[in-house]
Predict the 3D structure of the following.
Amino acid sequence: MTRSRDVSRYSDQALQKLSDDLMAGKRRALSKALTLIESHAPSHRPAALKLISVLEKGQRAPALRLGISGAPGAGKSTLIEALGLFLLEQGHRVAVLAVDPSSRQSGGSLLGDKTRMEQLSCSDQAFVRPAPSGFSPDGVSLGGVAFRTRESILLCEAAGYDIVIVETVGVGQSEAAVADLTDLFLFVLSPGAGDDLQNMKKGVMEIPDCFVVNKADGALLPFARRAASDCRAALQLSGHRPSENAPSGRRSVLLCSALEKSGLDLLWQELQSLKQERLDLGAFEERRLQQRQRWFEEELRHQTMEKLFTKLDAAEPAVEKIRKAVLEGQLGPGQGAQELLELLWKE
Amino acid sequence: MTRSRDVSRYSDQALQKLSDDLMAGKRRALSKALTLIESHAPSHRPAALKLISVLEKGQRAPALRLGISGAPGAGKSTLIEALGLFLLEQGHRVAVLAVDPSSRQSGGSLLGDKTRMEQLSCSDQAFVRPAPSGFSPDGVSLGGVAFRTRESILLCEAAGYDIVIVETVGVGQSEAAVADLTDLFLFVLSPGAGDDLQNMKKGVMEIPDCFVVNKADGALLPFARRAASDCRAALQLSGHRPSENAPSGRRSVLLCSALEKSGLDLLWQELQSLKQERLDLGAFEERRLQQRQRWFEEELRHQTMEKLFTKLDAAEPAVEKIRKAVLEGQLGPGQGAQELLELLWKE
């Protein structure tokens, strides 16, 4: 189905080699494949899609996909690094993907991305990928970021990483988006969590499967304890409602210190226990199935919009004529759009 | 361009009569036309679009479009009623359109809509329309609401209302959406505005052209004064930056009392002066032109998605086959979408 001219840069052989190298766990192949996935060039998409299909067929046992978010300053990155190193010690291979839904505005990855998670980045068994910049040709920033991230997760899994952490550096809406990409969603609070909790919009409190108060060390320990009990109280208020994401309604609040590397074992134990609970209830697979269904629907929307933009580019004089008529008030915008679309799709 | 079968319920003659009646200022015609615009039935769209084009050609001098938002409890509705009655006294004709971006979730207009703005509703020279329910077949709730509202504004203008107030009863994102539909945007604060200001997300503070603290009466007056000075301080902090919407960067903070009907004259004076300033700078027309451009683009997106859904419905067995392959992992979601779209648009 892939049109031959579109894959000029990636022949079937080249794609097969890329996928073989990636499945053999070669880091360079993974980096190269991620770059292909993240590419803005429309001509790269068919190759990227084909690669995904090939990798899915040869796929290993899927990883645990863990979403992590938190208020700025809660020490998300240091916690991810500490947790990642802990997981490496347990024999896991860990990939970290950063997602930045606001990258379109800031125009690139966050400052300091290169130096973040230095220790983790150095390990053979870990892979850290900063947020790609400037997504979403269709203007739906979050959507664009989200499904490139879905593909990136599959790539990491195919490369043998059995724990894929998706870190969102955005705020607000990004929580729901990242929860929709992952099996479990962890929210990191700082010891001054009162503010964090207040800043969490109504409804957001129900998204995480687990809360962890970081920096529970030294002089901050009593504050961390209080933040944890505030968080428990807030959860009580919001009613511990079971949801599609959390069928038992269980949402724990834990303490940890990325600095002292304490509490990480309990955190991991809790995450594993949550996973097991979901597996036993059949909810783990159900959630993945629904995520895949939504992914498919979003691809349909996205690719349809891309088709529209391609057609608009190709028919510029006609587009310009109708656009002028609309702007000058000779045509209503709705009717102008209707006439233009009939024209574009007539061929 | 409108296909004949689509306008079965509205012949060209019927549309012409509707538009004549509407332009003659007949209320029933306006109500009927708004219902046509708000209709969910795809078969009504071509007639609605045609009506808009007809009305635009015969249009009167455009009205002042005034967006009004505010924190819940700030007394937005009573202020709109008081301001509306004040404007009627000045010889204006006032239409009020309520927009509720969250209506999709709540499943309808807000409780009590029928009894809101009772006095204003009773006047011959005013027209009050509650928020329509359950928009957006494409899932982009805000977008769907927004461009139906654009059309409704045009209808009210064609019916001779020279001031159209768009009230948003939503929160958060809706401010930007309503500002994009209107010439001036007013934000209503309550005397306890400290909280309102804190709840305004970063960036939202820059959207309004004017702030007004309502309930500046009786025992609340000192609190209202303090709220106004807090608001001025917050504006100072945010830097009074000129923007596309506010080219001079001027943003006033006023006091009023809907209860005592005080401060309404100063508020109206300020709004008129802002309008004049924009007109002198050429910014008034520029803003409208950009809004119309965005409207056209949104119509293109929206109608394209509608086309997609129609095609998906018509090709159900093929859709189901590919969907199954995607959910069972035989096809990547992206490639599945690509194959499906090639199939749908081949005919």
Chain A touches chain B through 50 residues (CB under 8 Å).
